Amino acid sequence: QGWSPMIREVLMTRRMPPGQIDGHIGEFINDRLVDDQDIRNIIAWVDAGAPIDGEADLLAELTWPESKWAFGEPDIVLDIPATTVPATGNGVFVNTEVTFDIPTDRWVRGSQIIAGDRSVLHHTVNDLQFPEEIGQQRRFLGSSSPDKADITAYIPGDTPDLAPPNTGGLLKAGSLLRLNMHYTPNGRETVDRSQIGVWFYPEGEVPEERMSGQCACVFPNSWTTIPAHDPAFEQTANIVIREDAHIHSFLPHMHFRGKRMRFFADYPDGSTEELINVAKYNYNWQLSYTYEEPKFVPGGTKITAVAAWDNSSQNPSNPNPDRNVDWGNESWDEMFFGVVNWKNVDQGGED
Could you tell me the keywords of this UniProt record (predicted)? Predict the structure, then answer.
């Protein structure tokens, strides 16, 4: 029977697959959901003794990717300076940087960070600086031009993706990527040697379209403390999409007490629509949910993210239900990021 009893158990308890969203709202290419009938069929197969259909061992016939990178070998791979993470202590925060030593400016299709040690790398926050910007003091989460390449951050459970066709951002030769690396000690000293891979458009090819994005976020200056033992404490944040646009994806981010995050659109005509309901948020699977077909919204649409946290003893991931919880970088603190990515219909306008 192999792993079939475990497959049955995780399906029946809904621990796997890591589908978190309400499948009745929107159509997403990476919903990670399994239909109820498919679950019943799998459980019936396990209960029947997990019979093999035929003589072939299908697992032995799997062809594994030749590259550790999501889209084959990148056009450029940069080593992030190694960091020694101690065995114990609170979170370790390291500011470091890498330089794109490329001979000419290039347009970026996609990027990926591969963690050297996934057991300790909590996340990264990135800031790309063109050569003329190097040395300027600014926040890691500061806004930037849609023309500038989006070099992906590392987030647990998320998967990299390429930009839509004919869409990308510029990476100037000599650009500097500043990284804030957050590590969580796991009981043994280790050295993290993470890498960044970038895929370019062919040299001389300039994509005509740009992605835009903004975060419906709550930061410390507007944070409301989550009371101890509250099973569903809510906060909201909103952004406005100024021009006619097509929404491509949503990325929710909270920590261990994160329970759900819903996104709503308030349209200029006064109507309201729910766009996505991440009903079973899981910190270990922080996915960027991408529409099968981008969602049109007219200019002036307000996007509201509504997040909820479970600070009760019923939350098995809760480190301490007796604690009032404020905003903070550690996983036992909390955050609220609701990232929305879209593409303006008029690519000649300003975001």
Answer: Disulfide bond
